[in-house]
Amino acid sequence: MITDRPNSNTFYNYTDLNRVEAKTKELAEILTSKGYYVTVVTKTDWKETDFPTVSQMNRYLDNVKKLATQFYKESGKYLPVTMRRLNYIGANEIEKCLVYIESLIDEMTRYYRQCNTFYCGAW
């Protein structure tokens, strides 16, 4: 994930779309398997010649917002409101949100079974 685009001289292109869509799909599957049901529709075969429509870009951003809302809403608080006139800050925030959600999932999973909690009080 790219979370540190340096300035407005960078461009959002099909590789960015594919990377974010793939990560969104992966995280939705992980969350769903852990009881946080998230349904997303993704497109992971963007090509250089594709020209995304407004509805595709709305779906793209809404998918990330769904992940944040279903798992930890605070993780999506800096997401752009729309993809229209997306700048490098908004692009960074989309990917930061996904990185943060993934780190929270990893942290949650680490604590599933800690200190023999499956044997409450049995020392």
Q: What does this 3D model show about the protein?
A:
The chain is mainly α and 123 residues long. 50% of the residues lie in helices and 0% in strands. The protein has helices spanning 14-33, 54-71, 88-110. Helix 1 packs parallel to helix 3 (88-110) and helix 2 (54-71) packs parallel to helix 3. The mean pLDDT is 87.
Element layout with pairings:
Layout: H1 14-33, H2 54-71, H3 88-110
Helix pairs in contact: 1-2, 1-3, 2-3
Coarse morphology: globular
As residue ranges, the low-confidence spans are: none
SSE string, helix = H, strand = E?
HHH
Oligomer: single chain
Average pLDDT metric: 87
Please report which band the strand proportion falls in: under 5%, 5-15%, 15-25%, 25-35%, 35-45% or over 45%: under 5%
Distance between the termini: 44 Å
Helix content: 40-55%
Continuous helix count: 3
Radius of gyration (CA) equals 17 Å
Structural class: mainly alpha
Largest sheet: none
Number of strands: 0
Summarize the structure.
This protein is an all-alpha fold. It has 3 helices and no strands. The longest helix has 23 residues.
Considering the chains and any ligands shown, give keywords for the structure.
single chain, 123 residues, mainly alpha
